Amino acid sequence: SLKLECDKLASEKSEMQRHYVMYYEMSYGLNIEMHKQAEIVKRLNGICAQVLPYLSQEHQQQVLGAIERAKQVTAPELNSIIRQQLQAHQLSQLQALALPLTPLPVGLQPPSLPAVSAGTGLLSLSALGSQAHLSKEDKNGHDGDAH
Fold first, then answer.
1. Cα dist. 44→36, 63, 99, 143 in Å?
2. Where does the record place the Groucho/TLE N-terminal Q-rich domain (predicted)?
3. Is residue 133 within 8 Å of residue 76, measured between CB atoms?
4. What angle do CA 46, 35, 79 make, to 5 degrees?
5. pLDDT of residue 64
6. What's 102's DSSP letter?
């Protein structure tokens, strides 16, 4: 009985260590991705600052307004983006399960599924975030016909 309890505790310990390593790796990957995204933002801001003086005064104001609106991401918008990303990920998993197990005819390639990692997930979230924000601007008519 004591031996069984000891084995059970040892397996729980190794399971906890596995989880710790997994969470550490995820945390490290997310930290790297956040630094990468911060660097991308810094570079894009630099590009905007270089290009902005070449625009007309009216367009400069529109671009500055659009940049400020892009910085105003709300919690509900983030939740919506995360929900969309999760649904897309679940759909791709379901499609992967539904792939035929029989060999494909010669010349046909299986459909490629996107690899989902912490990095690509965040990139997708940032892309979805900018798309959602831009589509919201279009609906609200902020930048409608001045282009």
1. 12, 13, 40, 20
2. 1-90
3. no
4. 95
5. 94
6. S
Asked if residues 37 and 126 have their Cβ atoms less than 8 Å apart, the reply is: yes
Tokens coding 145:
């016909």
Phi, psi of 144 (to 5 degrees): -55, -80
CB contact at 8 A, 114 and 120:
yes
Q: What is the distance between the alpha carbons of residues 54 and 49, in angstroms, rounded to a whole number?
A: 10
Q: Which amino acid is at 50?
A: Q
Which residues of the chain register pLDDT less than 50? 110-122, 124-147
The sign of the dihedral angle between the CA atoms of 37, 147, 64, 49 is positive
Residue 32 is predicted with a pLDDT of: 95
Distance CA 39, CA 36 (A): 5
Separation of alpha carbons 32 and 118, rounded Å: 10
Domain boundaries, the chain: 1-56
pTM listed for this prediction: 0.48
